Amino acid sequence: MEHSAASAPATLPYYVAFSQLLGLTVVAVTGAWLGLYRGGIAWEGSLQFNVHPLCMVIGMIFLQGDALLVYRVFRKEAKRTTKALHGLLHAVAFIIALVGLVAVFDYHKKKGYADLYSLHSWCGILVFALYFVQWLVGFGFFLFPGASFSLRGRFRPQHIFLGATIFLLSVGTALLGLKEALLFKLGTKYSTFEPEGVLANVLGLLLICFGVVVLYILAQADWKRPSQAEEQALSMDFKTLTEGDSPSPQ
């Protein structure tokens, strides 16, 4: 019984593999859209704007989704290693997304365009700020050794909920940006099934599918990472030393 509880559920690897196939396809289709219909990417000139959608898809969608799946994929590794990988993926995602934000603001400044007037931009700044705060708070509570066991336990449900919410908001914001980009360029031609519009619609569906699969994996209680015996012992020792009590069963 203990071995079956610790082993990965039979279907979990297939769902994880499917999520990775979807995620990589999303990145590839984003690159194809920018290359075929937007001229590619570059830091200088009119192509600088294209850095923004590519970085946001890689950082705030693909890598953020993978960071959320770390605790489902690495089920038997040391908890400290899994935590470090979870935090590292989020940090890399944040840095890549930051490059995307700098690119679009710099492009707007050079072109004399207004900033932060659209729903997409408002949602984007909100999501990016929440993501940064979530990472800082998560680092302080779960990676930094100063937080008490009970404090971590009380904050963990909020941390998990906020992580899934921010990921969902990231996918929604990407869809808003995609629609905005199409309307700016195609205008009324969007309704005539222009090839760019069709490809971008496919990209939008892929974004939704990736988000749904990731959230589905996270929602399965049986697929959560089981606590290892040494982790339970360390948690009990930590709480006994810091609070003079043993942790309550969960």
Automatic annotation (TrEMBL):
<keyword id="KW-0249">Electron transport</keyword>
<dbReference type="GO" id="GO:0140576">
    <property type="term" value="P:ascorbate homeostasis"/>
</dbReference>
<dbReference type="InterPro" id="IPR006593">
    <property type="entry name" value="Cyt_b561/ferric_Rdtase_TM"/>
</dbReference>
<feature type="transmembrane region" description="Helical">
    <location>
        <begin position="198"/>
        <end position="219"/>
    </location>
</feature>
<dbReference type="GO" id="GO:0046872">
    <property type="term" value="F:metal ion binding"/>
</dbReference>
<dbReference type="GO" id="GO:0005765">
    <property type="term" value="C:lysosomal membrane"/>
</dbReference>
<protein>
    <recommendedName>
        <fullName>Transmembrane ascorbate-dependent reductase CYB561</fullName>
    </recommendedName>
</protein>
<keyword id="KW-0968">Cytoplasmic vesicle</keyword>
<dbReference type="GO" id="GO:0042584">
    <property type="term" value="C:chromaffin granule membrane"/>
</dbReference>
<comment type="function">
    <text>Transmembrane reductase that uses ascorbate as an electron donor in the cytoplasm and transfers electrons across membranes to reduce monodehydro-L-ascorbate radical in the lumen of secretory vesicles. It is therefore involved the regeneration and homeostasis within secretory vesicles of ascorbate which in turn provides reducing equivalents needed to support the activity of intravesicular enzymes.</text>
</comment>
<keyword id="KW-1133">Transmembrane helix</keyword>
<dbReference type="GO" id="GO:0140575">
    <property type="term" value="F:transmembrane monodehydroascorbate reductase activity"/>
</dbReference>
<feature type="transmembrane region" description="Helical">
    <location>
        <begin position="159"/>
        <end position="178"/>
    </location>
</feature>
<dbReference type="Pfam" id="PF03188">
    <property type="entry name" value="Cytochrom_B561"/>
</dbReference>
<feature type="transmembrane region" description="Helical">
    <location>
        <begin position="86"/>
        <end position="105"/>
    </location>
</feature>
<keyword id="KW-0408">Iron</keyword>
<keyword id="KW-0479">Metal-binding</keyword>
<keyword id="KW-1278">Translocase</keyword>
<keyword id="KW-0813">Transport</keyword>
<feature type="transmembrane region" description="Helical">
    <location>
        <begin position="56"/>
        <end position="74"/>
    </location>
</feature>
<keyword id="KW-0812">Transmembrane</keyword>
<keyword id="KW-0472">Membrane</keyword>
<dbReference type="InterPro" id="IPR043205">
    <property type="entry name" value="CYB561/CYBRD1-like"/>
</dbReference>
<dbReference type="GO" id="GO:0006879">
    <property type="term" value="P:intracellular iron ion homeostasis"/>
</dbReference>
<feature type="transmembrane region" description="Helical">
    <location>
        <begin position="12"/>
        <end position="36"/>
    </location>
</feature>
<feature type="domain" description="Cytochrome b561">
    <location>
        <begin position="18"/>
        <end position="219"/>
    </location>
</feature>
<feature type="transmembrane region" description="Helical">
    <location>
        <begin position="125"/>
        <end position="147"/>
    </location>
</feature>
<keyword id="KW-0349">Heme</keyword>
